[in-house]
Design goal:
Keywords: ATP-binding, Ligase, Membrane, Nucleotide-binding, Transmembrane, Transmembrane helix, tRNA processing. GO terms for molecular function: ATP binding; tRNA(Ile)-lysidine synthase activity. Helix 7 crosses helix 8. The protein has a domain of 140 residues. The relative contact order is 0.07. The chain is built from 12 helices and 11 strands. It is α+β, with helices and mostly antiparallel strands.
């Protein structure tokens, strides 16, 4: 109970309620939560700026939310139907333990995940809704009934799809969904640590873009490249993901590398990407895309970009000829360091 937490000198509980105003009863719920927190002696905030700003303003180590096992099971179904990654079917089921030391010197372990740099704690994620309601009835904890609109996707899932699945496959279907979510998380942790992270760590980053030697990963399947490049695009460069077809083209090129020239991959509009032997080069599109600035600034940016490309090709041509003059193709393979073309001193 929140009251027990507030008695600890080491733990400060601050309650945040976000009222989206999309249901008739939402205002009444917000007022009740405020009154309930007042009775418990918990600080209460009702803000419009969202969870992230609240997190930094109050210097919170984490935000605790009330998701339970049923929410997780619904996520698995929804994410499967949407074609989400097999590595994140649960969407919120991280099993990393975060320990709070209370005034009784006992430890409280909570399920946690990190969303946009904010630690999200879900202490009830392994409990069913029935268990939570039993606790509420036993200890007199008030709660609101589920008012999710029946016409919404989530409402249809709860009132129609899940009961139908239980009728067809038995009551164990919900526990199976929880197992799938757990397996998905464990698979995510394993592949990230032993497969994807070594690739991401080998990526060389510069202000102009990124480059990475793909030789150790040439024989890996399409799924690896989709996940590896998703992180590279979204997290490293902050750009949209490349579609599947050009990724397959890159895989074919990697299996038959050309060591005598740059290969233009044409992976996406305004995305300038190349292969040099097995080295993948992706320029940051912010140097080529049209931004909200005056015409002169855009022209200067475009001129800079094309001059950089001209220099790149001249460097390849010059060093290539020099390599053949000095001793043939073996030296030519090492003649053009991609890193030097991406560094800002060029």
């Amino acid at each position: 109970p929140l009251r027990w937490y507030t008695l600890s000198p080491d733990v400060q509980v601050v309650c945040l309620h976000v009222d989206y105003g999309n249901r008739v009863e939402s205002a009444a719920e917000a007022k009740f939560v405020e009154d309930w927190c007042s009775k418990l002696g918990c600080a209460f905030h009702k803000v419009d700026c969202g969870k992230t700003l609240f997190y930094y303003k109050n210097d919170c180590p984490g935000i605790m939310v009330g998701h339970h096992a049923g929410d997780l099971q619904e996520n698995v179904i929804s994410n499967l139907m949407r074609g989400c990654s097999l590595l994140d079917l649960g969407g919120m089921a991280s099993t990393v333990q975060l320990t709070y030391i209370m005034h009784t010197k006992s430890a409280y372990n909570s399920l946690q995940s990190v969303v946009n740099g904010v630690t999200i704690l879900r202490p009830m994620l392994e409990r069913s809704k029935a268990e939570i309601l039993d606790f509420a009835h036993t200890f007199g904890v008030p709660y609101f009934k589920d008012t999710t609109p029946k016409w919404s996707n989530r409402g249809k899932l709860r009132s129609h799809l899940l009961p139908l699945l239980q009728e067809i496959y038995g009551s164990g279907v919900t526990s199976n969904l929880s197992s799938v979510a757990r397996d998905s998380f464990e698979l995510n942790e394993m592949t990230r640590r032993y497969i994807f992270q070594p690739f991401w760590d080998s990526v060389c980053r510069t202000p102009l873009g990124v480059h990475v030697d793909c030789a150790p990963y040439v024989d890996l399947p399409l799924y690896f490249w989709k996940e590896a490049l998703l992180h590279l695009c979204h997290t490293v460069l902050g750009i949209s993901m490349i579609s599947e077809k050009p990724i397959q083209l890159m895989m074919n090129r990697l299996k038959n590398p050309v060591v005598t020239r740059l290969i233009n991959l044409s992976m996406k509009k305004n995305y300038f990407s190349y292969l040099w032997n097995t080295t993948f080069v992706l320029f940051n599109p912010k140097f080529t895309s049209e931004v909200h600035e005056n015409t002169a600034g855009f022209v200067i940016r475009q001129v800079f970009f094309w001059l950089a490309h001209l220099f790149l090709w001249l460097l390849v041509l010059f060093r290539g000829k020099l390599a053949f003059w000095e001793g043939g193709q073996s030296r030519f393979r090492q003649a053009f360091p991609v890193a030097s073309a991406l560094n800002t001193d060029l």
